[in-house]
Write a structure and sequence with these properties.
Elements: H1 3-25, H2 31-48, H3 55-75, H4 81-108, H5 114-145, H6 149-171, H7 177-266, H8 269-282, H9 285-288, H10 300-315, E1 319-323, H11 336-359, E2 365-373, E3 376-384, H12 392-395, H13 410-420, E4 425-432, E5 435-442, H14 447-450
Parallel strand pairs: 1-2
Antiparallel strand pairs: 2-3, 3-5, 4-5
Domain Histidine kinase/HSP90-like ATPase: 334-446
Keywords: Kinase, Membrane, Transferase, Transmembrane, Transmembrane helix
Transmembrane segments: 6-25, 57-75, 84-102, 114-135, 147-171, 177-198
Length: 451
């Protein structure tokens, strides 16, 4: 092979190596990255050029993998370590399989000029591999980043060391064609076997996860159905009686006022005292405001969660108000279960914060409302807080909680649920003037198309 051809093959090989790794790791290197990596590749090739053995290719591949992973992880912070490690192992496996494939071809085919064949194959095989990686790069990225990536990386590490062991045995010494083919097909069998194992492990994990999720959803659905039936029955009772009770209270207060005036003129102070005592015993002003405006909510799921949380506020003796002035019978099409979960979490956070504020001697209060204007639906809630309240970004982190033996998934769960509907739900929260404000706006699904 002429020096010019050797340099050409070396440069092409270095460019393909960098490009292949970056494709596997989903990295877009800058011009400076290209220059630095090509320079390091050149230094590495020169250092290993003194070792005129095929097994030196194995060491070179291993050093290249470490070089790429270290450069992009330690210096560039270009991605998760597991993804970069998986890309490095996959790159090493591909490089070694290319070299072993060339060994098999040399053993099988009579070649008049091996050097030109070597140069040709060093140009052709990497291009074929690059084309395949570009074709399947999204699938490769998904495999290296999904929940089962740790299993895949472990299997790739095993396959890489198998490639190295077979490469050290086959590449340096001349082996009979039968031995070369035996070990090469043994390697292919190992790769297929590991692929089958990975697929089965992932399949079993998904089955277990689906079973657990289905059982949890079934329990949750059963509980929701039970609670909804109870709350619907109670809500129907409230609808029939709330407005009549308010009108009666208003009329009664007017009657009481006239009786007080008449009694005062007649000097019947005892009558006045008796009437006031009767009023105090018969009408608990707070009880009359236990479920304000709930009868205006015509959507059972939204009404049920409001009733449940207002009852908890009332029973926990937390000062509160709730408003729903306009009748709500229709909201933008969405997953009602997700919407109810968000509203429930927001109420729970406000109740918890109010209880803690009361425990510290403060005065807790929660104010919530449903609001609808046009096609939008908005839920707003706020609660009093003190200066020791946690930062909202900290509250939104999964696992953070101010509650003992609690999972700490409140606002983190809300953010995840909203992310599922990011084109339809707008979330805003944070402290302001001694209050923690939480607002969720539900938009029609076609709002962007109309815009």
């Amino acid at each position: 092979m002429t020096p010019f051809l050797q340099i050409l093959v070396m440069i092409f090989s270095a460019v393909v190596d960098i490009w292949l790794f970056c494709l596997l790791a989903q990295i877009r290197p800058s011009k400076l990255d290209w220059l630095l990596l090509l320079a390091l590749e050149a230094v590495l090739s020169v250092d290993l050029s003194n070792f005129q053995t095929y097994s030196s290719l194995i060491y070179e591949t291993a050093l290249e993998s470490l070089l790429f992973c270290g450069y992009f992880y330690l210096l560039k912070k270009a991605g998760p370590f597991r993804q970069l490690l998986g890309a490095g192992l996959l790159y090493g496996i591909i490089s070694l399989i290319i070299q072993l494939s060339m060994k098999v071809l040399v053993s099988l085919l009579p070649l008049p000029n091996y050097f030109y064949f070597d140069a040709f194959m060093n140009l052709l095989l990497p291009l074929v591999v690059l084309a395949l990686v570009i074709w399947q790069r999204q699938r490769i990225t998904n495999l290296l980043t999904d929940a089962n990536s740790s299993i895949l990386v472990s299997l790739l590490a095993y396959l890489y060391f198998v490639c190295c062991a077979i490469g050290v045995y086959l590449l340096d010494d001349e082996k009979p064609t039968e031995v070369v083919l035996l070990f090469f097909f043994l390697l292919i069998f190992q790769a297929i076997f590991l692929a089958v194992i990975y697929r089965e492990i992932v399949h079993i994990q998904r089955q277990l996860l689906d079973q657990q999720q289905q059982e949890a959803l079934a329990r949750q659905q059963e509980q929701l159905i039970k609670e909804n039936e109870q709350l619907k029955e109670y809500a129907a009772y409230l609808d029939q009686n709330e407005d009549e009770l308010r009108r009666f209270k208003h009329d009664y207060q007017n009657i009481l006022l006239s009786l007080k005036v008449s009694a005062e003129k007649g000097g019947s102070q005892a009558l006045i005292a008796e009437l006031e005592k009767y009023t105090s015993n018969q009408f608990d002003q707070k009880a009359l405001r236990k479920y304000p405006d709930v009868n205006h909510i015509k959507i059972p799921e939204l009404k049920s969660i409001a009733i449940a949380k207002l009852a908890k506020l009332y029973n926990d003796q937390i000062d509160y108000s709730f408003g729903c002035e306009s009748e709500i019978s229709q909201i933008p099409q969405t997953n009602l279960l997700d919407l109810v979960r968000i509203i429930g979490i927001a109420f729970d956070n406000a109740i918890e914060a109010s209880q803690q504020l009361k425990d510290r001697g403060g005065k807790g209060r929660v104010e919530a409302m449903y609001y609808q204007e046009g096609d939008d639906f908005e839920f707003m809630i706020r609660n009093r807080i003190d200066k020791s309240a946690a930062d909202p970004d900290q509250l939104a982190q999964a696992g953070y909680t101010t509650k003992k033996d609690h999972a700490g998934l409140g606002l983190a769960n809300v953010k995840e649920l909203v992310r599922r509907h990011d084109e339809q739900m707008l979330l805003d929260y944070g402290p302001e003037d001694g209050w923690f404000n939480f607002s969720l706006t539900l938009l029609p699904e076609n709002v962007e198309e109309e815009a």
